[in-house]
Amino acid sequence: MSDMFAEVDVLVIGGGTAGPMAAVKAKEKNPALKVMLLEKANVKRSGAISMGMDGLNNAVIPGHATPEQYVKEITVANDGIVNQKTVMAYAQESFNMINQLDRWGVKFEKDETGDYAVKKVHHIGTYVLPMPEGHHMKKVLYRQLKKARVEITNRYMATRLLLDANGAIAGAMVLDTREGTFGVIRAKSVILCTGAAGRLGLPSSGYLFGTYENPTNAGDGYALAYHAGAELSGIECYQINPLIKDYNGPSCAYVTGPFGGYTANSKGERFIECDYWSGQMMMEFYKELEGGNGPVFLKMDHLAEETIGTIEHILHSNERPSRGRFHEGRHLDYRQGMVEMHISEIGLCSGHSASGVWVDEHAATTVPGLYAAGDLACVPHNYMLGAFVYGQFAGQSAAEYAMSHELPAVDDVQVEAERKRVLAPLSVVDGLPPAQVEYKLRRFVNDYLQPPKVTKKMEIGLDRFAEIRADLDSMSAANPHELMRAMEVHFILDCAEMAAHASLYRTESRWGLYHYRVEHPEKDDADWFCHAQLKKNEAGEMTCFKRPIEPYIVELDDEEKDAYNRLRVVKQAEAA
Amino acid sequence: MPMTLNRVSVPVTVDEDACIADKGCTVCVESCPLDLLAIDLLKKKAFMKFDECWYCLPCEKDCPTQAIRVDIPYLLR
């Protein structure tokens, strides 16, 4: 097999949610550009929305919410640590994007007059738009990719970005996951859309691939950006979600909440005011789970038959359609019992929390020619609609950059070093199986990095990770599939080290459970009202530093600032 | 180093009478986000080659002859 070699203007890595949008928008900006969409799986069924999505979590629709209100909500939900400009850029484009998706054929819930039927789930504003027929998302995107004549390359995985002599983007180095061959794609600009680092923690079931995020999302983009010298931000603000016990999907309160379902303790009582996923909410969830009233449940058994039927239709046909099958196996009927809940493994994901590659309001990273969008780009709580909007920004920005730059020369030293690294496991005979190395690594992630975060534990974790790093050279791959998994182990290890370093750096507690440091239990605005950034320094070491928060463009009043700190239901004092 | 092969129950079942891989169909192989399915070269039928399932169901939904059934992996069932 000869090596793959290609020359393009814009290379989009990752064809899930943000990636297809980025590729289409780059082509729309300039149809003469050669735009390639590279995907580890197959674009038709890849990424977080392979089976669709049951709703928008952050629709900013006139008459229901304003961009200013949304910026306030996310500022408070993310405990003040936001670059408001990036959130505002999303909010102002949110409604246009919904209308565009509607024109493309995405079906949103509408009322009898044809208006979007928006529901309230967040603590302050109203932003949830259900998509009961949202299982066709990928088909809609695929049609647009074909129409825009984007070049699609499936079953390839990027392993490192290629840089020019000045540290600007020159392309990517890739692995053909079915042939086990190495390749080089030269590009003027690159967009990272590789999703969350979803294979970081080990689900408590012990099943490596039973993760909340699509397990193809091994944190590839986090590692690619890191090794290219990009700044990452808020890595200590983990993703942790409330999920059905033993199942990798939520129950889901966003869907059931508007119908009257709610999160309850073992007595069937409400204990949180608002089901919107935030670190503060997860902290109350965690306390109840571990306390005497635990575990935690989703309660729907008080609802009418008709309502439960509707909920079942949405939950069992969208996003996580095997949910119904799981309940069947456990003999659970929403009519007769509550759904037992648990918390997910940890991950990195800006779509849900705020851990990602640093981007500005044009989706530009700190590396010239490198853009990022979707779950891995640090725009807090951006979700699917944010992935589309930032995909659009990234596509447009990367196209502009490509139009004003020449294709940089390829540095053979980088290429040869990477070829050696990537293909090495094929020539190790009698080595460690990648799955065993991954299992051990991710168990250590659980043992040492999972909140509550303890300094000494995280330090021990770093020692264990260093030992696993020494084992990487002993990994062997029996076939191209195992080689792909072996390269993913490299990514997961990078992400684990980043999670430990970033968590040790921020010596305070913030974002509820996401960054609860036992020895520093209080929030410390005097020292830590700032972004914590992480990057590879000149010496190749992982370093952390502070980045000041840009002055707010939307001010908060004191009442609002505190809203997400008052999530626990306060019991009325009994009359004397 | 010494190695062994462990037996593992996998969640994807293929009805070989319904599967038309012998006629050139590879829809499920292409659908799987984790690239876990393959065609058995002797039997010319699809099968689950790797135990790394996300039980996400594209293989089952996209199969033109409804030959595939995805169960929840035993560890989670």
What this model shows, in words?
The complex is a heterodimer of chains A (576) and B (77). Chain A is an alpha+beta fold and 576 residues long. Chain A has three domains: 4-109 and 122-239 and 347-412, FAD/NAD(P)-binding domain (3-Layer(bba) Sandwich), CATH 3.50.50; 242-343, Flavocytochrome C3, Chain A, domain 1, CATH 3.90.700.10; 421-532, Fumarate reductase/succinate dehydrogenase flavoprotein-like, C-terminal domain (Methane Monooxygenase Hydroxylase, Chain G, domain 1, Up-down Bundle). Helices cover 35% and strands 15% of the residues of chain A. Chain A has 16 helices and 17 strands. In chain A, the strands form four sheets. In chain A, strands 1, 2, 5, 6, 7, 8 and 15 form a seven-stranded mixed β-sheet that branches. In chain A, helix 11 packs across helix 14, helix 12 (434-449) packs parallel to helix 14 and helix 13 (455-471) runs antiparallel to helix 14. The N and C termini of chain A lie far apart (83 Å). The model of chain B has no long low-confidence stretch (mean pLDDT 96). Chain B has helices at 27-31, 58-62, and strands spanning 12-14, 37-40, 45-48, 68-70. Chain B has a single domain, classed as Alpha-Beta Plaits. With 77 residues, chain B is α+β, with helices and mostly antiparallel strands. Helices cover 13% and strands 18% of the residues of chain B. The chains are: A alpha+beta (576), B alpha+beta (77).
